[in-house]
Amino acid sequence: MYRKKSSVATIDENNKLSSPILSMMHGMGSSDDFTKLQTQRFTNAFERAGVGNVRNFEAFSASFRGLDQNVANAARQLNAGTISTDEYQKVVKRATGGNAALAASLKGIAINMGAMLLVMVAIKGAMWIFDKLNVTTEEQQEIVDDLTEKVKGLKDEYNELYGRNDLTEAEKQKLDYLQRQLTVNEQILKQEQKKLALSKLYGDGDIFSTGELKATGVDSETDSKIQKDIAQLEKLRQQIKQNEANQSGNGIDYVYQKLAKQEAKMVDNLKSEKETILQLQQNAQDNVTLLQEQLDSGALDGDATAKQRVQKDLEFNKHRVDELTEYINNIDATIHVNVETNDVKQKLKAQFGYKNVMEKAQGQEAWSESEMAYLDTLSSEELNYLIDIDSIGTYTLEEVKDFIADFRKEKEKSDKDNTIEFDIKTNLESLESMKDGLDQLKAAYNDVKDGEGFDFGKLIDENFVNKFGGFEDEYNRLLEVVTILKHVNLPLMT
Fold it and tell me: Are 206 and 195 in contact, with CB atoms under 8 Å apart?
């Protein structure tokens, strides 16, 4: 079953909240106030036990951390019978300052406890709201899976009874109940399926997600570089064309060789840049598939606005696929410019036939005229295949023959093969259910803070306990403080 985990603090199996903030808040109030509170608790407990009845006095007093030690010593002496009750009461009065001073201290603590409880409620409420609002796609999938399983179980039970003619009255009532449950849970499932679809597409419901739709736009820097390389390539080809008029046979000069190699490098650049555009095109196609799947699933059929949103994005991505296809075709048209077979052959011979000093230093050898003759045996398609290979001029004749052999095998296989053809909870709950309890707590807090009349019965009201019983430590401490206030019978209390 799906269970939401909190990433802000820890709530244990008893619904108690713990976090670093809580540890800090336990120390609210001055140390003097705390000592007076602990001393009063000690004297109350000592009086209930009865003088002379405390056998292990050290263990008894140690349970009241922060207790005034003068009072502890006086109580030990009274318990042993070495001082009188009056003497003991004088020590207690000096330590607590009497009812008025104790009341002022306890009032400060009560205010702090009330403020702390308010903060705890706010923290827990904020955590609760965050967890309800923030549902990841994986968590939403789990919700849908659980509901799907539940609906299936209800259908199985319903179908088991539906076809029978001998149903008892109890079975008829169960059949009616199952029908109602099916209707409700199928509607809930539709809502959760819609939320799952929107979560997958756009990350709706998860503040940390943008969904599974991928980026498809060509950034300005990439586009600028591609356009620049296209312009440079066209310029080089114009220069090559002008130079070709001076060439005959294999008599290729250094200028032609240099231009041909620059052209090859620019083609390599465009091929690399084309891969980026191909990935964006694939992203757009993936988006089309994902969007179409969500529309076809029927999950959005009950929400015209959501369905229109997805349809709009589907059309956008289809259009983007077409735009990127055209972009890629333009790059290809520039790379694979329609030239005569002899021109392609000339460019290959320029790369194979001459090596500069650096290339020779790297061990590259120019092809001989007999080796060059191999290029004359190749078809136009094979020549174009070779010229598209990165740094083709660096390979030996044997390596080029291997390329051609592989090309011919792949072509033969391709000719034989056919063309390869290419998945609410009804509404968010709110803190409205806690509104009455929060108002009650705020009123109690303001009464203590302002010194107005205050009814202690409010703190044990059934509604108040139900709302705040989960904050066990904070609730018990506040209740204890105001109980002591009532015990000392302050004039400001009713």
Answer: no
